[in-house]
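Checklist before submission:
- one chain only
- standard amino acids only
- sequence pasted in full

Submission:
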Amino acid sequence: MDERAGSTIQYGGKGAPERPLGRSIKRGLLCRCPNCGDGRLFRAFLKPVDHCAVCGEDYTPQRADDLPAYLVIVVVGHVLMTGYLLTDMIWRVSPFVHMAIWIPLAVLTAIATVQPIKGGVIGLQWAYRMHGFSKEPEHGDPSA
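Returned file contents:
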């Protein structure tokens, strides 16, 4: 693409149709296919399906490796730390009571949120055509 005088010139024919980012992430967070919204995204806990059973979208290119875990740590850490600090300001209890409450809550919350967050990351990758979701050969691919 080339931009001149405020207009966008696109070389090489028609561009790929736009994939809505917000809708794709929302469908991923609901563990549904980002393309059609009907098919399941996971076959087991944290194991994505190879392709959507409804629309046939291929999910083998997804690379949602470490980002979901980092996002879970950030989200759960901020929410639970806020809860810990607020309860500590209101009620003065032993640190052991806090540990008995907040450690199991942190583990359960992390387990409950990691799969939807991974689905959201897969939806993000699909919407931006990352890691092979573009249906075009990657650079350096010998079969191209």
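Reviewer check: The radius of gyration is 21 Å.
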